[in-house]
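Let's practice the habit of predicting before peeking. Look at the sequence and jot down your guess about where helices and strands might fall. Then scroll down.
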Amino acid sequence: MQTLPPVQSPTLCGVFCCMYGMVGTVGQSFFFSVAYLWYSFIRFDLLRTRPNTVNMLGEKLRELREAKGLVQRQVAAELEVDTAYISKMESNEKPVSRQHLKKLSVLLGIAEDELLTLWLADKVYDVVKDEEVAIKAMHVAEDHVLKTKNKKRKS
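Done guessing? Here is the structure:
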């Protein structure tokens, strides 16, 4: 029977192992495995059932619509889409189509650039949200965009 190596870093799971007398390498590793599986299932369930709460554009559209006193049905009619699409768009279950930004800006009384900025930010976030080097990658992209813009201005 193979003995698993002991876990090196002290964690809450390690504290529980010591409390319950599982100080041997197999007992401790088994407990860590069970704890990790439990965490993975809980995390998967939460991610699966909870909408993305970081989506900035959907939240902004709902806020602006409510401030204008409009109902989703009115916005849907203006965009020529289902009311369900507006609901899902505002709750971040469906992405906002770029083609709708101009009509939304006029209807909700906001600059199209502001909506476009949030639309792009949502796209970037969706790409990098699970990456460990997300911030670093965004800085590199920012530098590249600035260099490209500066070259175009000089030309």
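How did you do? The chain has eight helices and no strands.
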